[in-house]
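Morning run. Coffee first, then this:
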Amino acid sequence: MPQDEQLLLRSLVQSACMLFDLDDAAVLLLDPVEGLLNGVPLDKELQRLAQISLPLSTGTPIADAVLGKAPMFVSADSSAISVGEKQLLRILGTEAAICLPLAGNPHALGALVCALRPAQFASLRTKAPLFQAFAAQAAAALDAARNAQGERRESLQALREEYESAAKRMAHEANNPLAIIRNYLAILEGKLSKQEAPGGEIAILNEEIERVGSILRSFRNRTPAGASGNTDVNRVARDVVRLFAETGFANAALKISAHTGEAALNARADAQTVRQILINLIKNAVEAMPNGGEIRVTANGMINFGGQMFIQLSVRDTGPGISEERLGAIFHPLESSKAGENRGLGLSIVNEQVEKLGGQAICSSSAEGTSFTVLLPAQTAAPRLPADSSTS
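And here it is:
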């Protein structure tokens, strides 16, 4: 039992004893699945309450009180009392008690069974409405506490799921630069064995190591990238294609090419995010063509979409295409047929990153291949409106 609920029940018992001049009281909570009223030991003296388990069936005083949602007096010499109820009275050290139903909304929560002294049995009968009012308030407090507890559990579960998802995404994204690092280390090893001087491999290794660190820092700080910065999409596209081509990421039967202009094509995004988007799209295309094919990365310049300027970037492959069923959920993280713990995350990450930049990701597919088109907000000056030349 949660500690806050236990404290509340203990407070209810103490309040009932003080308000009605009682010696003791016991709490029974309903198990709706089993249909049982189970005793709750709130202190060391009443540990035997854990042995109490009363069926919620008509014909016995405590069950009738809970089902009827009305106080019920219980006497040890009553012919209707059950064996379990007699045991409860013995634990409370009394021959008579009053059962206050904890009637929640909409279901019963349990009962508060208050021990009575012989002299009280007759006088307290006249206070039944007061007992009922107290029981209603007690049930409302318990109901509210359970609802708050449920909301906390849901909140914690949502937070746990969010961090688990973020951890999987971090592992997926960190694996990309780690794979590049591994491949470049193999290239360096080959050069050194031939006593050849390293070229630009060291600089690329440093860049990828820094990228791993950036991914880890973003997870720690929980700060997603946004539409900020000024990145030349043409340059990033050429750099990423060169990485895949030089490191032997794909088999020799696969051709990867970049089709970009020489002039800068600036997007309102940070270079790291654009790089991640492209790597995930190209990697997805590579994995779709294990027997080889062609991948074309194209920067198609700027387009006006919905009155806003975007840069159009596409990755097209000559693979077998995507089924209509999978195409409808292509950006869902669990729709991939690839094996692995983090399967299907790449495209969902692409979609999320593009949306955070204020852009759009589109996928089209046929038997001739699949094309992913990404619209990134263009870094352009505000358009100048023509002067109003109308005359009155």
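The first helix runs from residue 3 to 20. Good start to the day.
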